[in-house]
Amino acid sequence: MDMWLKEGQISDAAMTYKIKETLVRKQTEYQDLAILDTYAFGRMLVLDGIVQTTIKDEFVYHEMISHIPLFTHPNPKKVLVVGGGDGGAIREILKHPSIEKAVLCEIDGSVIEECKKYLPEISSELNNPRCEIFVGDGIKYVHEHKNEFDVIIVDSTDPFGAAEGLFGGSFYKEIYECLTEDGIFIAQTETPFYLPEVVKKVFNDAKAVFPVTKLFMAGIPTYPGGYWSFTVGSKKYDPETVDLSNKIDFETKYYTKKLHKACFTLPKYIENLIK
Amino acid sequence: MDMWLKEGQISDAAMTYKIKETLVRKQTEYQDLAILDTYAFGRMLVLDGIVQTTIKDEFVYHEMISHIPLFTHPNPKKVLVVGGGDGGAIREILKHPSIEKAVLCEIDGSVIEECKKYLPEISSELNNPRCEIFVGDGIKYVHEHKNEFDVIIVDSTDPFGAAEGLFGGSFYKEIYECLTEDGIFIAQTETPFYLPEVVKKVFNDAKAVFPVTKLFMAGIPTYPGGYWSFTVGSKKYDPETVDLSNKIDFETKYYTKKLHKACFTLPKYIENLIK
């Protein structure tokens, strides 16, 4: 049987992946969840038909969403991940020895459960004693915790449906309150090529809340366009100019200290978008 | 009719594009040539089933393959484009007022002819008096011209089939001879994610010939992986450290002077590939 996944994120153009095996497919309380084994990217998590993460290219996303804010903050101890049920961000966060507690607040417990089972390379640190898992609404969690986290990572699905409330001004104000006085926020913020208006709105919403707001790019093959944006909002430290010389080194596949700075230099059309 | 192009470049994963209209489809002396009008990317040139350039994202490729070498050279007067029959590189090259002659050496005259007809936004400068068109073999042309060009741009299809001879050491030696004493060479050199061995080989082949060899990346949505490599070989000037402060400014959509430097800072896995 020649079985292919056709991804439905962008209209009139689609990535397709040849499937070896469907490892799990179920309707959870929140979404259509599948973990597929593919020929080109190995096992992948697919939510509502959209590829979230794959064994072969997850390192780009998880390294960049974690190490940029954690190396920008001088001494991050408490980190909150909103979403991120696959555990990839948690795995990267716990590489930083200063971290005392990393809270994962994922609305869909089934994502955690199935990723623990089928994506052990990504979910490997979800049982780490420094990781605390909370299954519930990220918006509610952030609202109920004030002045608590040094870094907040919004590792969500796209801003349509379930995750819509995780993008935009009112949530960013709550995040600001949830951060400590020198805290840093980061979110994945979509493709500037296909969804320029989303990138622009989200950036401006963050900019209205945070004294320092920067956007950077990373090359992620399984995300539409292959060139993905992340937005950083910071109360104090500038991720682009921070001194990284005294930071520890550990093995990475994408992140480097030099790239930490360079990734904020944007192509003209993206620069114009957030001007 | 719901008609889609499925691109065959990468096995087991494929980009697909919904087609509005097939403007031209023919077997030329060298390849299967099509110009399709698509919903997501507008008109696109497809050779042997592989998307070469599209109205919507061509600016990234054509700006980066042209302006990086042309702004690195202090006074480029004569440029050779090997391949590039769509005319996009010629259009960008002729934005540099120092250019006296830009030679396009394209093996397949049908590409030039059909792009003039159906992709006028890209081919617009092919009739410019500073552009000289030569329909013929690039390898032969380069062999027959010594010490002549300040910049040589290899704007070819992929290193399989017709364009295979345009990648690799023996051709790069000929290019070296064809360049003036401070000349610069650039080529599109594929995707480090899907084809790491190709990127590695091509880079090392160039490095064996040129005193300065550098690789940079750009985000191109319609190329596999969306994050594409270019290799620069230079006899004298380093594109990453060259002083750009006195260079003229003109309107671009991707290239900026700051990005000219930053694009050479590579993700770790690409850095490792060419170490």
From TrEMBL, chains A, B:
Catalytic function, reaction form: S-adenosyl 3-(methylsulfanyl)propylamine + putrescine = S-methyl-5'-thioadenosine + spermidine + H(+)
Annotated EC: 2.5.1.16
Enzyme category, top tier: transferase
GO molecular function: spermidine synthase activity
Pathway where it operates: Amine and polyamine biosynthesis; spermidine biosynthesis; spermidine from putrescine: step 1/1
SUPFAM superfamilies listed in its UniProt record: S-adenosyl-L-methionine-dependent methyltransferases
Database matches in InterPro entries: PABS, PABS_CS, SAM-dependent_MTases_sf, Spermi_synthase, Spermidine_synt_N, Spermidine_synt_N_sf
Keyword annotations of the record: Polyamine biosynthesis, Spermidine biosynthesis, Transferase
Coiled coil: none
Active-site residues, Swiss-Prot/TrEMBL: 155
Domain PABS: 2-235
Claim: Acetylation is one of the keywords in the record: no
Residues given in the record as S-methyl-5'-thioadenosine binding sites: 31, 106, 137-138
Pfam families: Spermine_synt_N (PF17284), Spermine_synth (PF01564)
Binding site for spermidine: 62, 86, 155-158
HAMAP family: Spermidine_synth
Role this protein plays: Catalyzes the irreversible transfer of a propylamine group from the amino donor S-adenosylmethioninamine (decarboxy-AdoMet) to putrescine (1,4-diaminobutane) to yield spermidine.
Subunit architecture: Homodimer or homotetramer.
Family: Belongs to the spermidine/spermine synthase family.
Name assigned to this protein: Polyamine aminopropyltransferase
Protein species of origin: Clostridium rhizosphaerae
Gene from which the chain derives: speE
